[in-house]
Amino acid sequence: MSGLALRTVRAVWVPVVLIGALLLAAALVSANGDLVIERTATLLAINLVIAVAFHVFSGNSGVLSFGHLAFVALGAYVCALLTIPANLKASLFPDMPSFLVWILDVEMGLLPAALLAGACAALLALVVAPTLMRLSGLPAGISTLALLVIVYTVLLHWEEVTRGSSTMIGVPPDVKLGGATAVACAAIAIAWAYQRSRAGLRLRASREDEVAAAALGVRVAADRTRAWVLSAFLAGVGGAFYAHFITTFTPSEFYLEATFMIIAMIVVGGLGSLTGTVLGVVLITVLDDVLGRMQDGGLLGLSLPAGSAALGVAIVLLAMLVKRPDGLTGGRELPLPPPWRPATPAGTGHADAGGSGDLESAPSISSAR
Amino acid sequence: MLQDIVNIVSGGSLYCLITLGLALLVGLMRLMNFAYGELIMVGGFAMYLLRDEPFVVFVGGTVVAVVVVSLLTERIAFRPLRGASPVTLLVASLAVSIMLQNGARMTVGPESRGVPPSDWLQQGVAIGGAQVPRLDLVTIALAAATLAGLTLLMRRTELGIQLRAAAEDFEMAGLLGVRANAVIASAFAITGVLAALVTLILIEDQGAVTATVGTGPVLIAFVGVVLGGMRSLVGATLGGFLLGAATTALDVMLPNELSPFRDAFVFAAVIAVLAFRPEGLVPGRAERLA
């Protein structure tokens, strides 16, 4: 096998398979024509964007963030403010503060608004990075949670701009399966490109051993900041698309329960693996959707009490933490297809910080060349 | 003025109790327990179910219910995870919290349930010309009694010595004959008692209970523990008290248009403390929490 072919396959195998599977599934769903299933699939694609954003930071750095829903919320609100039709906006926000009054006349399309929303989230991430990125482990978890509480409090009480606890309405319902799938594919490609880049590899090295990586010259805080800002951008875009998908929402949509759902997806799939992230999103979204519909009596004629869906997801997450703390994938990526798989299988797994073909140990790959 | 001071001290006392319950488990097994809030929720629903019973049954039943649920979470969720990283424990406790919340939603119902406040507690008492709600005074007295009781327990009893030894060095304590299961279970039981006391004051004050009633208190407790330093109970006591006093004082002092944003200021302070003094205001003897 030529070295070039092997390198190419290694470089693109995982995203090609993931994106291919996603496109195939989307095509099947839209050919099937069932509107309920199509809606679930659209939600799944948006969840993918948010979970992949989460993976870019937490998966690569090993620092679990409880604050990403802050970026999702910011993205949703910024995008809503930019895209709600101008004539409606004037009546929805009669008390808009004078320094923001110009926003009432803005009426943007979804894509530019979503990119701006992502940029706002990235800016917030950049502002808090100098304090947050110094921390690891539990203090990092608590301070990212603090960020979420701060953003939630501001969204809930800055009524002139966010409508507070009253529902945000008037967002155009223009996210369909096609658009959501396209964004999910882009997010997967960006996340993969980042985790294979030099910066991504440095960050993954610091995840395995922070002290050793620092000793080798990795500036952990700087590399974490890069991932954090990129991740916030993706989360903001995800939030913007989510806003245009559900069209009506309040700040509590983006608080602890949503945080729990995203963390459940990542942990069930396997923290650190892009393949695992996608797998976790699919599993948890489907589980949540099926239980949710049984809850409303829409499936099998069952009517489970309200709360069953979240309860089911919580049980799955807890069982996973006890039985398979590394998730379904064990933090590894999709193995390479057989022709490129080296003859002697698997070393210890986690050694390959690149994240591709983690099932093969590094020495056997070089001998295959 | 006097009224403000009593208000601030009683706010501090309540937050101090809230923080202590969480701090015990953080010190012992580095468990930042999201489900602590749901213990308060369970207590609230117990109060709702027992609202017409005589006082002793009302209080006793609430305490027993919370302690039982606390022990159950330990047995079912946290014992299999013993030795896992603090972050894994945090995620697991979030799962337990969501389970309990939705369990309550499925059984007792999604709506808020009223618990009629007692007239006696709501009445004001005249002290030096100021009217002070009796509930504030009871809160302060209860917190003082609890602190005294907990200090005696930790300093003077066999269990307290074992708890402190296990918090200092779990493995070494085990080698010296401290039974891990028993010690951790008793810590969860004590946490349950503290959560029940918090519930009694909190629900008496709010007059109603919902499935998400624990979210506010648990965030307060997180902050109090972080402020105080995650290794010591003295720190948690102090952190909780300062936080409660500061929050109540902010309520009085913040201009009207900013007071809804109080929590944002409080949590910004948390980030600042974590970034510049990760060991909190009262660092413990042991190494910094990684």
Based on CA atoms alone, the radius of gyration of chain A comes out at 21 Å
The proportion of residues forming helix of chain A, as a percent range, comes to 55-70%
Strand order across the largest sheet of chain B = 1-4
Give the ordered list of helices and strands of chain A. HHHHHHHHHHHHHHH
Q: What proportion strand of chain B?
A: under 5%
Largest interface: A-B, 44 and 47 residues
User: What portion of residues of chain A belong to β-strands?
Assistant: under 5%
Q: How is the biggest beta sheet of chain B arranged?
A: 2 strands, antiparallel
Helix content of chain B: over 70%
Q: How widely separated are the two ends of chain B?
A: 43 Å
Radius of gyration of chain B: 19 Å
Count of β-strands of chain B: 4
- Estimated structural class of chain A: mainly alpha
How would you classify the helix and strand content of chain B by structural class? mainly alpha
Question: What is the oligomer described by this structure?
Answer: heterodimer
Write down how many β-strands of chain A occur, each being a DSSP E stretch of 2 or more residues.
0
For the report, how would you describe the main beta sheet of chain A? none
Q: Helix segment count of chain A?
A: 15
Categorize the overall geometry of chain A. globular
Key features of this structure:
heterodimer; A: 369 residues; 0% strand; disordered C terminus; B: 290 residues; mainly alpha; two-stranded antiparallel sheet; 12 helices; 72% helix
